[in-house]
């Protein structure tokens, strides 16, 4: 199985309004803010990031894992961090899982679509197997974005006691 780092060697992406850069320990304050929002805790879960030390450990774990990449998404004009786009090769999936999380105050502005689309397009170019997105069936906003990106509901899985819906690109 090809690692995510080998599949997508690109560490930086740019769109008209956004910069995407690999997450680093310098981003600890932002990571702590995002990972403790109501939506993150409800749909993704507690990652032990209530302290800067815990947040730095979380980031280090991400940095050391060749099967995941987290890009911090920032506004071009002020370099304001607003969210993440992730690509993770999970043990229980055959293809990479694209994900996203944004601070609530930056919702409904098209940023999540714009940022996720640039990573999705690069992943599609590089991965012969495809890409998927997984979400809790209650996460209506994520489902809406996955559908807008062109992914369709493919299957339902249970992982760690949680029922998740798997979305993937339609096969040609």
Give a written overview of the molecule:
This protein is of the alpha+beta class and 172 residues long. The chain has a single domain (4-168), classed as Aminopeptidase. The chain is built from six helices and eight strands. It has helices spanning 4-7, 28-35, 38-43, 52-64, 111-126, 140-148; strands at 12-14, 18-22, 68-75, 81-88, 97-102, 132-136, 152-159, 162-168. Strands 1-2-3-4-5 form a five-stranded antiparallel β-sheet, with helices on one face. The model has no long low-confidence stretch (mean pLDDT 93).
What structural class should be given to the helix and strand makeup? alpha+beta
Strand content: 25-35%
User: Which shape, going by the Cα principal axes?
Assistant: globular
Mean pLDDT level:
93
Which CATH class? Answer: Alpha Beta
State the CATH topology: Aminopeptidase
If strands are numbered along the chain, what order do they take across the biggest sheet? 1-2-3-4-5
The helix content, as a percent range, equals 25-40%
